[in-house]
Design brief:
Shape: globular
Distance between the termini: 43 Å
Helix content: 25-40%
Radius of gyration: 25 Å
Largest sheet: 10 strands, mixed
Strand content: 15-25%
Strand order of the largest sheet: 13-12-14-15-24-23-22-18-20-19
Number of domains: 2
CATH topology of the largest domain: Rossmann fold
């Protein structure tokens, strides 16, 4: 650790949401990590939800799960991919969780009859969460969700203003990310929205140390200087961050902007960041290879790329490290046709909930099993593979209890977990977070994990750890029929009661897991299952 006392960077956004605060913050974190610091990150979101478990993935993107089992939004996935650290329950703070904790404390007499208010109680609790999340860090970066000026986000803005009084203003760096639109009819960039956003932020008591100006194309330096002059900020601290082709090029864009000098002054350290691995990955991502692989993502949420962000990022990174181009084909699970599947080099079936689209996913798994097409099943992707194999093995109308199967009909190949009945529609009650599994000797699955050193030999066997988010399990009374259908169990929970992995021994590559390995895949350390899946397509 370079600094005994943690320093804090707070990132806010103006003009509109989705301006790139998370990627900007994560990119700065990647640069600071490359300088040798231990960097952690945290998201403070103004939503009144307690967690992200029940948010619509089409509207908000995928639900990301931390190692300790908290359901969060996709920004935490960006943090982990850029910084390579594991987020936790302290890395996400939603208004709903703060209010819930305050109300529970008040109802139990924790405030001893005092009036509970936004200031100081809400703001103090936010400060406590920030301190907990920053434990043992050199630098802790906090992203404030939403847009400056939103009523719902004001308590968080006040909290980070007060936080500087607590730890010292010299230990806090405030960054505002604003958007400058280009008006095509008049052929000019308009800075007024950014000026207003910075005026609002200043009115709440925060003058940013850095302003990142987001534009579609690089803008003239005069635009940054105009924002500086009308906002009372040094022109050297107003930096342009135009769009780039890949989010993994943003750290280099940030470096080119001139932010490193400001960060060096803040940290009191002029060490050059070692970005060599990032450069290698960026170079591989940009290169055009002789071979292109077509991967079908059979899913029901096909209107928004963010719904399966971790899956697509893991696939793209694996392709880059395997020296192939990748073309991800979105296959609507409700409209799966053999003719569409025949055009693919490989099939991925990701996680999901509910009966809609499951017939198509089962069909895709069956097609891969019968045609020897490489298949990677993730969570629900494993369950539909088990159903497809059981049907081939003689279980007529094999299905999942989630989709209407029943014990009485003797077709519930996938059934509700013990202790989960009655909780099907509630949030935060699933099997969430890291769980250990033991892999079967001589299985392809074990060989894959061993090859990349993801696991360890123990008294139980070869153990690995993966993150989970599910409620239903494989009914092991149907294992014989599933084996007749072409698959076998290649990994279980430590006690053997839960099926964690399956594979089809006669297929080139057919591996599925009850877990979500995409949550552990990083651009600089891609998950073994994704690496070997892509390798099987070459």
């Amino acid at each position: 650790m370079k600094n005994k006392k943690c320093k804090y960077i707070f990132v806010t956004g103006g003009v509109l949401s989705g301006v790139g605060k998370g990627i900007t913050a994560a990119s700065m974190g990647a640069i600071l990590k490359a300088k040798g610091y231990k960097v952690t990150m945290q998201k403070c979101d103004p939503y009144l939800n307690v967690d992200a478990g029940l948010l619509n993935p089409v509207e908000h993107g995928e639900c990301y799960v931390t190692h300790d089992g908290v359901e969060t939004d996709l920004d935490l996935g960006h943090y982990e991919r850029f910084l390579g650290f594991e987020t936790s329950k302290y890395s996400i703070t939603l208004s709903g969780s703060i209010y819930k904790e305050l109300i529970e404390r008040e109802r139990s007499g924790g405030f001893h009859g005092k009036t509970v208010q936004l200031v100081p109680h809400f703001t103090n609790l936010v400060c406590e969460k920030i301190e907990k999340a920053s434990a043992d860090s050199d630098i802790h970066i906090v992203e404030i969700g939403g847009t400056v000026g939103d009523y719902e986000g004001l308590p968080f803005i006040e909290a980070i203003r007060l936080f500087a009084n607590k730890v010292g203003r010299r230990n806090c760096l405030y960054i505002s990310v604003v958007y400058v639109p280009f008006i095509h009819t008049s052929n000019e960039l308009k800075t007024k929205p950014s000026q207003n956003a910075l005026k609002d932020l200043r009115g709440f008591g925060i003058i940013p140390d850095i302003v990142c100006v987001r534009t579609e194309e690089p803008c003239p330096r005069a635009i940054c200087e105009k924002i500086a002059s009308f906002s009372g900020i040094s022109s050297d601290a107003v930096l342009n961050l135009p769009d780039v082709k890949s989010v993994y090029d943003v750290p280099f864009n940030v470096l080119k902007s001139g932010v490193l000098e400001i960060l060096n002054d803040f940290m009191g350290d002029k060490t050059e960041p070692d970005m060599s691995r990032w450069k290698e990955f960026s170079r591989r991502r940009a290169r055009k290879y002789a071979k292109t692989v077509k991967v079908g993502l059979v899913a029901k949420y096909v209107g928004n790329d963010d719904t399966y962000m971790c899956v697509t990022e893991a696939l793209k990174a694996s392709a880059a490290w395997n020296n192939v181009n990748i073309e991800i084909k979105w296959v609507n699970a409700e409209e799966v046709k053999d003719s569409d599947l025949a055009k693919l080099d490989g099939i991925v079936v990701p996680g999901g909930f509910g009966a809609r689209g499951t017939d198509g996913k089962i069909k895709a798994a069956k097609y891969a099993l019968e045609k020897n097409i490489p298949y990677l099943g993730l969570c629900l992707g494993m369950q539909v593979a088990c159903i497809a194999a059981a049907r081939k093995g003689g279980v007529k109308n094999a299905n999942s209890e989630e989709f209407g199967a029943s014990e009485a009909d003797n077709n519930n190949v996938i059934y509700i977990m013990e202790g989960q009945k009655g909780k099907e529609s509630t949030g935060g009650t699933m099997r969430l977070g890291d769980y250990k599994a033991v892999l079967s000797d001589k299985s392809k699955t074990k060989k894959i994990y061993e090859k990349y050193g993801w696991g360890e030999k123990t008294a139980n066997g070869y153990e690995i750890v993966e993150r989970h988010r599910h409620r239903y399990e494989v009914n092991q009374k149907f294992l014989t029929q599933m084996e007749k259908g072409g698959i076998k169990v290649s990994g279980t929970s430590l006690d053997g009661k839960l099926v964690e992995f399956i594979e089809a021994p006669k297929c080139k590559f057919f591996v599925a897991t009850q877990a979500h390995p995409e949550f552990k895949s990083r651009p600089l350390k891609t998950h073994p299952l994704f690496m070997e899946f892509i390798k099987s397509l070459k």
